[in-house]
Write a structure and sequence with these properties.
Length: 182
């Protein structure tokens, strides 16, 4: 099921033990065209802090199934887990080193190794060991070129074909189980 990201900005987010904030933005990989992170504004709970939430933090149909009564997206993490996650400065590019620390903290498989949109598969799945102790360390290469882009920042960009302008980016459609953009 496809979801218009414009309808998700501002939506409330709930951890397993309470409200954690709201959807502020999405970061996508401009090579695979997949959402890599949801940017959550934690509001008064963690004042002044925004956190990144990987699609691994949601069940496979989360984007297509916000709670109908409360219009809330549910995250499969506790507030304590989120509070202890590596801090991010959303005004700077997300480095590969940050991503390695982030994925190691949660024990999730990394997405940039393997042939699928999510590394070893076509959707966020836990296929590797999930404890920080037995996760392999993937060394950072200075030549790594991170390809993360903000959906909000790209909205409004003009689209140019070889024979002239064709319009502008007004939004993104995301596939609910793979988090792939269309």
């Amino acid at each position: 099921m496809f979801q218009d990201l414009n309808h998700l900005y501002g939506k409330k987010l709930s951890a397993t033990d309470g409200i954690l904030g709201e959807v502020r933005d999405f970061y996508f990989d401009d090579q695979s065209w997949a959402i890599r992170y949801l940017v959550a504004d934690t509001g008064p709970w963690l004042a002044g802090r925004q956190v990144l939430l990987s699609p691994h933090a949601f069940d496979r149909q989360a984007l297509g199934r916000a709670d109908a009564e409360t219009d809330v997206l549910h995250v499969t993490l506790t507030r304590k887990q989120i509070e202890g996650s590596p801090s991010i400065d959303t005004h700077r590019p997300v480095s590969r080193q940050y991503e390695e620390d982030y994925y190691r903290y949660y024990g999730w498989p990394i997405y940039w190794e393997g042939g699928g949109i999510w590394g070893a598969s076509g959707f966020p799945t836990l296929t590797l060991p999930t404890t920080p102790e037995n996760r392999p360390h993937h060394g950072h290469n200075q030549r790594d070129d991170v390809h993360l882009r903000s959906t909000k920042a790209i909205t409004g960009y003009r689209v140019q074909a070889a024979d002239g302008p064709v319009g502008s980016v007004t939004g993104f459609m995301v596939e609910g189980w793979s988090w792939g953009l269309r």
